[in-house]
Design goal:
The protein has 12 helices and 25 strands. The chain has 398 residues and is of the alpha/beta class. It has 3 domains: 172 residues, FAD/NAD(P)-binding domain (3-Layer(bba) Sandwich), CATH 3.50.50; 121 residues, FAD/NAD(P)-binding domain; 77 residues, 2-Layer Sandwich (Enolase-like, domain 1), CATH 3.30.390.30. The strands form 7 sheets. The protein has a 5-stranded parallel sheet with strand order 3-2-1-7-19. Strand 4 and strand 5 form a beta hairpin. The protein starts with a strand and ends with a helix. The mean pLDDT is 95.
């Protein structure tokens, strides 16, 4: 019988595991170990928190009272230094052992750092934690010359925030149209072009080196040198698997888990960014981590796992809100609903008369409808899907 669950890491996956355990009726002890003062949400780090319009308490995943109300013991400002599955315990900083019947690894990940010479310069920033954002904010002053490396979700959001703060921003990526696989080539191209319309200079190139100069940090981009006041790396993340590896768990580009989030040791589960279902690429989005937590709780309780739904994510940049669901790369063709000049519009990916993906700009209801069409495998007629006069909810009736 599971009487005590120790969750390692206080991101959305870890907190969701704790919340799901209580919501599903777990009556044993739940301990959440987190390195920070309290668990906080990470998407605001590149937006409201970076601008200073929200402070750390305003992005907390749960208010402080929640942990008491849910009988979740939060051990903060502490890290787990070792797993002792054979001893049924985890080891904390300082050597303290905490007994655990099941351990859930929600260790997240760190910012990827490509092998670029000069990367150790203190003016080169990453953005994974609130501390990272606090340091970066000091550099985002009006007129500051900022180089953002990587035009994916984090890089694009930081570029948007920096230009809004009055910085001169250059955004570099070797890919001509970032996010095309996730959003489709048409929407991805429109989205990337937003940068130029908002005074962000976009460059398709590769950064070769950084050099400390008296006037700033010099970056050589495809052979051309430019001087900047700050550099931000947004080139992905590396899953934190060190604890798992030291404990002898199977690790291969993430902590390998089965469909119930169980690792190669049945006493240990893994959720969120570091977890990878065997044979499937890791999923690093917020909702996926939340769903991992619900599955892990069901596994611990021996109850049916939640029914999987199409993967969903969102991003905000230059005052526009974008959502996407499903697998656009699986689409045989795309259907555009509305016009890219409209205040709101959507793109749907179809294959064999079924919706396999959807993405929208400032129209979350379209993505909610797309998700239902995907999950229920409801056949659609492309012309009706493309017609803004056709109510999407009507298509849900088939």
């Amino acid at each position: 019988m599971t009487e005590r669950v120790v969750i390692v890491g206080g991101g959305i996956a870890g907190v969701s595991t704790a919340a799901s355990l209580r919501a599903q009726g777990f009556g044993g002890e739940v301990i959440l170990v987190d390195a920070g003062e309290f668990p906080y949400d990470r998407p605001p780090l590149s937006k409201d928190f970076l601008t200073g319009t929200k402070d750390i308490k305003q992005i907390a995943l749960q208010p402080a009272q929640w942990y008491d109300d849910q009988h979740v013991r939060l051990i903060n400002r502490t890290t787990v230094t070792a797993l002792r599955p054979r001893d049924g315990a985890v080891e904390l900083t300082g050597g303290q052992l905490i007994p655990a019947d099941r351990v859930v690894l929600a260790t997240g990940g760190g910012a990827a750092r490509p092998p670029i010479p000069g990367l150790a310069d203190p003016r080169v920033h990453v953005l994974r934690t609130a501390d990272d954002a606090d340091r970066l904010r000091l550099s985002l002053t009006p007129g500051a010359r900022v180089l953002v490396v990587g035009a994916g979700l984090i890089g694009a959001e930081v570029a948007s925030t920096a230009v809004r703060l009055g910085c001169e921003v250059v955004l570099v990526d070797p890919v001509g149209v970032p996010l095309a696989a996730a959003l489709g080539p048409e929407l991805a191209a429109w989205l990337h072009a937003l940068h130029d319309r908002h005074r962000v200079t976009t460059v398709r190139a590769t950064v070769e080196s950084f050099t400390n100069r008296p006037e700033g940090i010099e970056a050589v981009v495809d052979g051309v040198a430019g001087v900047h006041d700050a550099v931000v790396l947004g080139v992905g993340m590396v899953p934190s698997t060190e604890l798992a590896e030291a404990a002898g768990l199977e690790v291969d580009r993430g902590i390998l888990v089965d469909e119930r989030q169980v690792t190669s040791n049945p006493a240990v589960l893994a959720v969120g960014d570091p977890a990878r279902l065997r044979g499937v690429p890791r999923t690093e989005h917020w909702e996926a981590a939340q769903q991992d937590g619900a599955r892990a709780a069901a596994t611990i309780l021996g109850t049916p796992a939640p029914v999987p739904t199409a993967p969903w994510f969102w991003t905000d940049r230059h005052g526009r809100h974008i959502e996407a669901v499903g697998h656009m790369e699986a689409a045989a063709h795309t259907v555009i609903r509305g016009s890219f000049d409209d205040p709101t519009f959507s793109v749907f990916g179809l294959r064999d008369g079924l919706v396999v993906a959807g993405a929208s700009v400032d129209d979350p209801s379209a993505v909610r409808a797309a998700r239902r069409l995907i999950d229920r495998r409801i056949p659609v007629v492309a012309d009706r899907l493309a017609d803004p006069a056709v109510n999407l909810r009507g298509l849900l009736r088939g």
